[in-house]
Amino acid sequence: MNGARSLVETLVNSGVEVCFSNPGTSEMHFVAALDRVEGMRGVLALFEGVATGAADGYGRMAGKPACTLLHLGPGLANGLANLHNAKKAFTPVVNVVGEHATYHKALNAPLTSDIEGLSAPMSKWVCTSPDAKSVAGDAAEAVRQAMSGEQGVATLILPANTAWDESNGPVAALPIDGPIAPDGETVKAAAKALEKPGRKVMLMNGNALRAKGLEAAARIQAKTGVEIFVDTFYPRSERGQGIPVFPGLPYFPDDIAKTMEGAEELILVGSPRPVTFFAYPGKKSDCTPDGVEPVVLATPAHDGIAALEALADAVNAPAIDKLEKDPRTQLNLPDLPTGELTSGPMGQTIAALLPENAILSSEAATSGLAMNIFTATSRRHDWLNLSGGSIGQGLPVAVGAAVACPDRKTVCVSGDGGAMYTIQSLWTMARENLDITTVICANRSYAILNIELMNVGAENAGPKALSMLNIGNPDLSFIDIARGMGVEAMRSETAEDFNDHFKYCMENKGPKLIEVML
Amino acid sequence: MNGARSLVETLVNSGVEVCFSNPGTSEMHFVAALDRVEGMRGVLALFEGVATGAADGYGRMAGKPACTLLHLGPGLANGLANLHNAKKAFTPVVNVVGEHATYHKALNAPLTSDIEGLSAPMSKWVCTSPDAKSVAGDAAEAVRQAMSGEQGVATLILPANTAWDESNGPVAALPIDGPIAPDGETVKAAAKALEKPGRKVMLMNGNALRAKGLEAAARIQAKTGVEIFVDTFYPRSERGQGIPVFPGLPYFPDDIAKTMEGAEELILVGSPRPVTFFAYPGKKSDCTPDGVEPVVLATPAHDGIAALEALADAVNAPAIDKLEKDPRTQLNLPDLPTGELTSGPMGQTIAALLPENAILSSEAATSGLAMNIFTATSRRHDWLNLSGGSIGQGLPVAVGAAVACPDRKTVCVSGDGGAMYTIQSLWTMARENLDITTVICANRSYAILNIELMNVGAENAGPKALSMLNIGNPDLSFIDIARGMGVEAMRSETAEDFNDHFKYCMENKGPKLIEVML
User: Fold this and answer.
1) What is the C-alpha separation between B368 and B371, in angstroms, rounded?
2) Which of A247, B3, B324, B429 has its CA 20 to 30 A from that of B188?
3) pLDDT of A451 higher than 90
4) CATH assignment of B184-322?
5) ipTM for the complex shown
6) Considering only residues 225 to 264 of chain B, which have any Cβ-Cβ distance to chain A shorter than 8 Å?
7) Is the pLDDT of residue B211 over 70?
8) Is there a shared CATH topology between the B3-164 domain and the B343-517 domain?
């Protein structure tokens, strides 16, 4: 058995079932091995950022890694932006990158580059297999690394001769180090902080945002009066009917500072400190109130749910169904809107029609705010957010989520600017017949940048500057682009159009795109 | 004056006239500075790989750098694949990357990453400006680094506060270290090698492939009988009527080995050794014949034209117009083809109709061979090749070439697979109304990989493997995609169609796309 086959068999042994790939010559043996091993599904992308973003979306929903298959340094480079998002989301990904044969590398052929150097910034673990006999063991270790402790991207670099040379066959899965259990002393410290008078704030991210974590948080709030905020850029949250909901930490610096103002205690559950996304002249970047030292109840390596449940018990919070006021969200669907189509009515329609158990991949920077508010009381769903701030995540994450959860409807809501970074995702949606409805918020602008231009004090911008933020001229036609990649597409000009189109998409399976003219 | 303005003024002082950008919040002051400084044109791309590839194409044609403006680590990452190609092409590029404010970085906000680490593999020089007062000097040094000696990518990383803080104003351009003049001893050694009996081979790349270099090479050949080959992946060659033409070194390993067989002397002029593109099981990677130690007449840091002229003089070669047989290519245009449209007729039509002084950006892996042969006797043109092997170069390089040379027709011939990596290029072509005709060779396959699958010995591939090489299902419609980005598009099903469409495009200015159904 060659090294390539030992790789694929070991990955399957380790629970990896899907390979999001864009291979080249140096990966041909790995591609050939896909046919010889049962249990590995190959999903082709036309651009590597689609493959890595899909691996992120898959990992968020499946709770285990997919693998990628990328072609040398440039193929890896094209996938790095979405690996950055996966890293910041703590998503387990096994990132497989082909390399020149060990003896070929020194010759500096055109495609030679420093693959380890390129991988390191976005990976928690990087390994180059030295020979075919090492591949299986390295692959099992890659899965272990991706899944253990603080989860993330494990990059396995495979020189071409490790694929075609003889191996010792596959190995079994390695044991995973699960998330860290809550520490008794820290739980006590958090409970003590919550007993104090004055304003107390808790910031949450990670698995604390699943239903069980949110329920425990609601119990703690009911008992202690702590104010709870959800970190701005969470990878995944369960939301909607039956699930307690908490406001999000705002995005802009003055709003974050205001939210944190007067807090005397700060408890972090899988969340970083309240840091601004960007720096702004004359404004604080770390909005932790002066003199407050946060209690870190859970890091991203911890089990946030277990930590919150331990804290709820430590403060003697009643069970969720024994609370005076039930904190679980009641279903409250907005009416379908009529008339002009702006981001508000768009959000209303989505909230009204989103089916039970939908997955919502959101990358609508300025156009997604209303949708976020309206869907808080929708039918139960998962919301996947832009975790690392690198736009071009929304469509690929939807691809991966839909592959992981074929029986659930996936809705991807993206800005027009953001959608163009990885627009090739549409083709993979069509090829795999994924049940994804992509909603493009077509405002013909990097709208967030028009706001940021003012925020950073770069005022009085002239026409050349403003043209760098305006993506009209020419207008993009997403319905043409979608049809060009085999995806059924429609354009909504009015709220009534969008009601009809979104309803059609929710009632019919398969990949579809709606271009919403904002 | 803030640091951002000192940057733009210094770049303009240093001869940089174009900025290919995809900015974000951290770059807003640099964007605002574009309006306040005369002489810098901003060209927006919807994806960073378009911006970096365009900077490569611009540098190849203008002989001086454009700058980029990219957003933090992920924006840089999206541009790395085409920076790899620029590096391998020795194209001068000033790669400007925004970074978080110096005091913001330690807070590990979502978009934080190791930008220096990401830049290093594709850059010859990397510098992070520590403060606003350093920006102007660093910018002048970036241009000097990009242009001096072995040209390449100079990456300048600018924390946001270096943009908005007060600077000391711009600085003047720094002196450039031009290409290295030929070394007398090396020229003598090469001349001596050419006097020997037996088979002598010369491989050429770099500026040796401009008309003057090719003329000097032809004189040397006429006098000494040396066999001359052009390196497979050259960044730019002048070709066609009036210019001597030499065969290219083949791509596949057995063909390279055969080409080099029996050579007793090997002279390298700006070219690496005859190394295979990939390694293949049981085949040699370095096809330099055993026992032959090449004479390196010119490295990429040398002036290949001057080296060849010195060698021609050293071997007492007559002037080009005194040679017995004039080596300068006679115009020989093929007839327009009829009937079935395959890559042969496609190449014939392009060769027949390519206008004087056209620029041909080629990334048609399997479909471009016939075109290469037919155009050797076309009207005079520049051919820009895939230099670093990272596909997704063809369209962006055409963008940059057309910006550099607005009075010349640019033709981009790309495979369908390759075109999809940076398909967002079409939008920039439309926005800037660039005179580019994009020809998509739609064979619905990563056709080169079907060949490579056999070459690497991964035979008997099954349906799952073959599906990873087949990009039909669904078929891409490039005419829809082009229209979606504002580019006039047409589809050619027969040779007659293509004759009509290509003729129309050559006779009319502006961005157009022809999808050739192969």
Assistant:
1) 5
2) B324
3) no
4) 3.40.50.1220
5) 0.97
6) 233
7) yes
8) yes
